[in-house]
Automatic annotation (TrEMBL):
Pfam families: Ferritin
Leader peptide range in chain numbering: none
Protein name: Dps family protein
Xref: InterPro entries: DPS_DNA-bd (IPR002177), DPS_DNA-bd_CS (IPR023188), Ferritin-like (IPR012347), Ferritin-like_SF (IPR009078), Ferritin_DPS_dom (IPR008331)
Gene source species: Roseateles subflavus
Amino acid sequence: MAKKPASAPTLNIGISDKDRAAITAGLSKLLADTYTLYLTTHNFHWNVTGPMFNSLHAMFMGQYTELWNAVDPIAERIRSLGHVAPGSYAQFAKLSSLKDAPATPPKALEMVRILQEGHEAVARTARSLFPAVEKASDEPTADLLTQRITVHEQTAWMLRSLLDD
């Protein structure tokens, strides 16, 4: 008779199931926002035109690369907390607070404005998780959020500076 495989041990990291679920729900929204902003930024990298083409094309590449590298740590934190990370366009569309990229590429400075607003929105999403994270004493998630907020606020500032007359 075949031996039944052992089930995985119960997760016991000092954070309750309820707190892990709440944190994971917020991280799933952060993941969706980050991925949506990544797609928009990559879209704008491909489709930017005009006198600022070279500088914006290069800037957008740096930004979408940073965003691409950010999605994995967010998803892996969700997994570390014992939950499944969302990973489909349908899930991201339901979870994200950001609008999808416009079907017709806007003018260059409108792209900058959309991305600036997107980075501020992702910073707000990340910041909104702190009450649940602090309640659970979830320092690794707090560290991740602090890093993400720093990047998004700085990027928003740089983009906003391009819009100043």
